[in-house]
Amino acid sequence: MARTPSNKQPINLRGDHINLVSSSLSSFPILQRSSEEKILYSDRLSLERQKLTVCPIINGEDHLRLLNFQHNFITRIQNISNLQKLISLDLYDNQIEEISGLSTLRCLRVLLLGKNRIKKISNLENLKSLDVLDLHGNQITKIENINHLCELRVLNLARNFLSHVDNLNGLDSLTELNLRHNQITFVRDVDNLPCLQHLFLSFNNISSFDSVSCLADSSSLSDITFDGNPIAQESWYKHTVLQNMMQLRQLDMKRITEEERRMASVLAKKEEEKKRESHKQSLLKEKKRLTINNVARQWDLQQQRVANIATNEDRKDSDSPQDPCQIDGSTLSAFPEETGPLDSGLNNALQGLSVVDTYLVEVDGDTLSLYGSGALESLDRNWSVQTAGMITTVSFTFIEFDEIVQVLPKLKIKFPNSLHLKFKETNLVMLQQFNALAQLRRIDQLTIDPQGNPVVNFTLWKYYVLFRLSHFSMQKINGTEVTQNDMIMAERLFGILAHVASSELPQYRLISILGDARKKQFRYLLESKGKKPGIINEENNDSKRLVGENTNRATLNYTTRDFYNEKLEEIKEKKKFCKTYIEDLVKEATEINMKNEALQKLWPQMFIELVRDAVIEIRNKNSYMKLCLQQITDQK
Amino acid sequence: MLSPERLALPDYEYLAQRHVLTYMEDAVCQLLENREDISQYGIARFFTEYFNSVCQGTHILFREFSFVQATPHNRVSFLRAFWRCFRTVGKNGDLLTMKEYHCLLQLLCPDFPLELTQKAARIVLMDDAMDCLMSFSDFLFAFQIQFYYSEFLDSVAAIYENLLSGKNPNTVIVPTSSSGQHRQRPALGEAGMLEGVEASLFYQCLENLCDRHKYSCPPPALVKEALSNVQRLTFYGFLMALSKHHGINQALGALPDKGDLMHDPAMDEELERLVVRSKLHRTSRPHRAKEPGAFGFQRREKQEALERVSSASVPTPYHYRWEPRE
């Protein structure tokens, strides 16, 4: 009869030994061995590469301990329930689709089911003695139904379709777990395996240490592989693994040296530092962002308030200006058209903060940024000479230009090297406002952001700036270089204005206008130095330093609306006085004129009468002579 | 001087008609304001300069709006100054928006009201799309009409409204059938067919207006001429016609004819000189204020500096003489 190839006996399963039994099991071949073989190899039977498609019925071999069905085409595990002494069953490389038919094999210790078509781990309930379970090369998607295998030492689930690892509790004896070549993204429950020493996770889909964090808690693990995972490509891979798994002796099949451990610890500390630092930075940035958002919101409220007053004062349900300190999430709904600076996340963030600033001052190397009108006061601070000297760019955002004008003298003195000015959302609406910038020492670059500065919509604004501030010889406006042609064009457009403003004004006007400008520049100085305005010598000295531009355009000034109205108010008194004074003069003059005219009218008549009286008087010469003498004697 | 008409007027009326008091008051006011500066070189000189500048039309530069519109002469001077200063903008061919023209006006008069500029723009744009661009000459002539004849135009607007709604303020209500029909024709509003009001009727009302009120209004004969070609007209059509009429422009005397609007040879010469000077200034290194005194305004030097500047000035090419308007 046929013997297994392990004894190098010729295989002969065809022919005589297959008996077609008339029972219902007649479709299965029945295996019979010669009694010699039975005695020689009583506990082992090998049916490797026998082209079997089904498990044959094995009669009279109930004491078999090792059974080998490798490399066949068996689709179901059957007809072995009688072999209750079986210790090792090898069904490697068959076509088995389901684990079944093993429920009687209570002594089974080794079960090899690699390279089959098994989709699910099941029906292993009675195999409590299982020591080795090999299910590699199957189609298993989930680890299940093995929690009772408390004697299992080796579990091979390589080359399956596992996407995650869990449900490993109960495997109290497991020392080796092979999960290579799956699609595993995270690993759990490994810390429930008290004996696990070797864990092979090569060629899976693990990308962060967090997804395998339970490994850190497994004190028994000494050997682990991660190669072929995305995590192994990361720069922090090695030292993170080493740092988190101090118990490891071997990583990716290589021994871990002391040096490596030390390096890992150092690097991990550095990472920690960096993370802390960046966290702090992001907190700061967040705070800055929120402050700016708050300033923006206040600015918008202010602008809306002004617009509402200007357009419709009787609409009661218009967006009423709200107290900025009480901003909470609900007010967001009241301003549906607001775009730009507001953030949908602002709602949540603001509720988290208890105090929100209303302005922001930021120094970033060579740039000083001011947000919100409250920031202007910061110019009064004691800036160190070094910091102030480094500032070359000053940026104003969400501040009214008229307010900025008032602090320009301070800017000039405190930040002498500021050459680039940037304005955004500063309500620049008229060309005239640029006149105010003439009082600075020098500007190389000017950036006027279109947002919140309607003046940029004018066709001629750049030329006007170049014309009025020609003494600065600016290099760039809004990022574009200023060319010779631009300067010439500016001069051509507005040169006559300058000419008219300087040469055609009467002298006293020139003096008064320039005097006003000087007085305004002095205002800050005098206030800060506490001097009385009457000291003329000081003014002279300061004037040398402060005024340095073309006489030609110096009369083109800008007075903020408030100051202008103030001035007009002041003049009202004088005007009234002048009016009454002139009226008095006119009255006098007309009276005199009337009297003169009346006299003119009456005079001819009066003259005639005078002459007639005189002629009548001297008609009688003698009596007249007597009368005169009489008068003379009377006088004495 | 001693013409009988002049003597026929009582004193106050004469003074008021010539606006003498306005100038006197303003002169004294300016004197008070700049007392310290003026006292340096004498009051007589101040008055000379003041009235010279009134004659030349430069007294309105950078003054407040209430003064600029106070007298017809001021208005004319302002128009002229605006033309001279910004003629170059027009010459350059730029089309600007109403807001930008307003900015330019504000350069010369800081508190010039936006309303007036808007009204002027409406004339040009025929009350349509106020953000449109306008050419310099269009705007200037419309602005001239609007600014110089502001009060007159307000009354005309009221008359127009009345006529449009069928009320005729000038004709005596005589309840005859014909005049009733006459009056009611616009009120029936044959919509779409007849726009505006009838020209001749409109002119009659205007004539009455000009007779009744003393403030400046365009010479009625010229107005009639402007209306002679049309049967019906709208309010803005009428204003547009006024602004384009050469005769009225000449009668005002502020601006040259439309064809000559860009011509000003003397100023162009001056401009060339300025441009050349600026070119030289730019090529040489611009000096910082660290070297004071070069452009510095020291008190004792300032007078000289100013004197240098004013002596270099070119006398106004068109000597504007203030002619009595009949």
Automatic annotation (TrEMBL), chain A:
Annotated organism of origin: Pongo abelii
Localization per Swiss-Prot or TrEMBL: Cytoplasm, Cytoskeleton, Microtubule organizing center, Centrosome, Centriolar satellite
Keyword Coiled coil appears in the UniProt entry: yes
Stretches for region Disordered: 310-338
Protein name in UniProt: Leucine-rich repeat-containing protein 49
Keyword annotations from UniProtKB, A to Z: Coiled coil, Cytoplasm, Cytoskeleton, Leucine-rich repeat, Microtubule, Repeat
Coiled-coil regions listed in the entry: 256-289
Function of the molecule: Subunit of the tubulin polyglutamylase complex (TPGC). The complex mediates cilia and flagella polyglutamylation which is essential for their biogenesis and motility.
InterPro entries: Cilia_flagella_integrity (IPR050576), Leu-rich_rpt (IPR001611), Leu-rich_rpt_4 (IPR025875), Leu-rich_rpt_typical-subtyp (IPR003591), LRR_dom_sf (IPR032675)
Gene Ontology CC: one annotated term: microtubule
Keyword Cytoplasm: yes
Matches recorded under Pfam families: LRR_4, LRR_9
Gene3D superfamilies linked to this entry: Ribonuclease Inhibitor (3.80.10.10)
Subunit structure comment from the entry: Part of the neuronal tubulin polyglutamylase complex which contains TPGS1, TPGS2, TTLL1, LRRC49 and NICN1. Interacts with PCM1; TTLL1, TPGS1, TPGS2 and LRRC49.
UniProt main location, coarse: cytoplasm
PANTHER family: LEUCINE-RICH REPEAT-CONTAINING PROTEIN 49, PROTEIN PHOSPHATASE 1 REGULATORY SUBUNIT SDS22-RELATED
Automatic annotation (TrEMBL), chain B:
GO MF annotation: an example: protein-macromolecule adaptor activity
Bias kind Basic and acidic residues: ranges: 298-307
One example of a Gene Ontology biological process annotation: regulation of protein complex stability
GO CC terms: centriolar satellite; microtubule
Keyword Transcription regulation: no
Localization per Swiss-Prot or TrEMBL: Cytoplasm, Cytoskeleton, Microtubule organizing center, Centrosome, Centriolar satellite
Tagged with keyword Signal: no
Signal peptide per UniProt: none
Region (Disordered): 280-313
Keywords assigned: Cytoplasm, Cytoskeleton, Microtubule, Phosphoprotein
Assembly mode: Interacts with PCM1. Interacts with TTLL1, TPGS1, TPGS2 and LRRC49; the interactions link CSTPP1 to the complex TPGC. Binds to alpha-tubulin.
PANTHER family the record matches: CENTRIOLAR SATELLITE-ASSOCIATED TUBULIN POLYGLUTAMYLASE COMPLEX REGULATOR 1, UPF0705 PROTEIN C11ORF49
Name of the molecule in the record: Centriolar satellite-associated tubulin polyglutamylase complex regulator 1
Natural source organism: Pongo abelii
